[in-house]
Amino acid sequence: MFIHEHDNWTDFIWDSETVNTLQLQSMHRLGYLSGRMAAIGFDSQLAATVEAVTNDVVASSEIEGVRLDTDEVRSSVARKFGVSLPASKDPTHYVEGIVEMMLDATHNQNKLLTEQRLYSWHHALFPNKTDISVGAYRTDEMSVVSGTLGRERIHYRAPSPDRVPVEMTNFIKWINNSDNKAGILKSAIAHLWFVSIHPFDDGNGRIGRAISDMVLAELDGDGMHFYSLSRQILKDKNHYYKILERTQRGNGDITEWLIWYFNAFMAAVDDSNAMLSLVLRKATFWHTHSQASMNNRQRMVINKYLDGYDAKLTAKNWEKIAGVSKDTALRDIAALVNQGILLPTPGKVRDIPYSINYTKPTQEKSPFSNIIIEKVGQDNYITAQYKDSISVRDRISTTDKKRLEDGEITIQDLLFKHFAYLLE
Questions:
Q1: Boundary residue ending a domain (260, 279, 298)
Q2: Mean pLDDT, to the nearest integer, of 162-177?
Q3: Which end of the chain, N or C, is surrounded by fewer C-beta atoms within 10 Å?
Q4: Average pLDDT along the chain
């Protein structure tokens, strides 16, 4: 029995205590990200928003097996925000339409959702499609099926087509009801509700995620959307479909779905925080070493590590990245060590790992306290108090965790790497 076959099927129930705890955790993560974003300046915020929207558009399509050219999408998004990109790639009309649809959802979030608005989004997804009903609700039965002919497995059977108009009227009325305050919970319910109706012949997943993002965008307020939930769903796609299927075969208790959704949201925010950390680290490094003497090769290798290359910085890796001899790599590194840009690991004489120095020399006492390294899921995080008043948290790389354990870097090295921007 599928969820919509129960009476009053949209009277969803869930474990309030569990969901309230996840909601508080999620809002805390989002608040931390928003606070960091507010500190980086409008131009950097725009650049981060362009990247987040690009990731969202590309990932949402890829979940359905549709691969878009990332450069085309980024170019289209940047134009919409008035951001200039070097050597940008002209987007096709198809890509422009999909980007327009996503931005209508996330930047016109206060507009009422209507059938005509949904139809226009559907047209954007399928501008030249003739074998399905485009810009209209489906008129055929709809099932999600896998397997070969004769051995098919029905994962979900949607409501019959004659029910779709009424079901969508109820859904749209609920979405537009101002008493249903925007938030992650509403976004999660909206996503499940819409894809369970499955109102279109195709494109339900992408439009469902656009609706989810539209609800979440009301939390952003100023139209700056810094994270990509679709990218996180793509990373966990198999689990996403399994949870969705179990929920759609259930009795209306959607606790499992909400737990998955809130955790996916927090992972998306953490990813955005990690991306922001790279931006901040890179900006801090080049601000600190603005007068440094470097050749183009040295800049290229340093930038690769600043952009998140997860490997030890050694002469051997320098050789590989720069495509130079060992002697040249050693000369490049020695010149940067002499300028205080790279710091060799004390006590090492062979295969020396180096650390990038993000800060100017100081004799002051470290402003960080209550430092904790913790594992959350598959990732490791460093948390601390800055000047005993500001809580800071960031994800650390697998390589840095190993170097810390091996004594190749200190906890202070990690703190300055991740939070040097606070010292300026």
A1: 279
A2: 97
A3: N
A4: 90
> For residue 12, which phi and psi values (nearest 5 degrees)?
-65, 150
Alpha-carbon distance 299 to 27, whole Å? Answer: 38
How far apart are the C-alpha atoms of 272 and 8, rounded to whole Å? 38
- The answer on 335 and 301 residing in a single domain is yes
Query: Residue 162: how many CA atoms within 13 Å on its side-chain side?
Result: 0
Q: Which domain holds residue 293?
A: 281-423
Q: Report how far Cα 263 is from the mean position of its chain's Cα atoms.
A: 12
Residue 300 sits at φ, ψ, to 5 deg, of -65, -45
Residue 387, domain CATH: 1.10.10.10
The distance from CA 89 to its chain's CA centroid, rounded to whole angstroms, is 23
Is residue 21 within a helix (H) or strand (E), and if so which, with residue range? helix 16-38
Task: Express each pLDDT in 412-422 by its tens digit.
Answer: 889 988 888 78
Nearest to 12 by CA among 174, 178, 165, 242: 174
Nearest to 283 by CA among 84, 34, 51, 40: 40
Ranges assigned E (strand) in 199-313: none
Would you report the helix, strand and coil content of the chain in percent, each value rounded to 5? 55, 10, 35
C-alpha gyration radius of the chain = 25
Same-domain pairing of 262 and 294: no
Q: How far is CA 321 from the centre of its chain?
A: 28
255-310 confidence digits (pLDDT tens): 999 999 999 999 999 888 888 888 788 888 888 898 999 999 999 999 999 888 99
Q: Are 229 and 216 in contact (CB under 8 A)?
A: yes
Residue 173: band (very low, low, confident or very high) from pLDDT cuts 50, 70, 90: very high
Instruction: For residues 36 and 44, give the distance between their C-alpha atoms in angstroms, rounded to a whole number.
Output: 11
271 and 143 co-located in one domain: yes
Pick from 244, 279, 314: which residue ends a domain?
A: 279
Question: Residue 220: what pLDDT?
Answer: 72
CA gap 29, 216 in Å, rounded: 14
Determine the Cα–Cα distance for residues 380 and 396; give it in Å rounded to an integer: 6
In this structure, what CATH number is given to the domain that contains residue 218?
1.10.3290.10
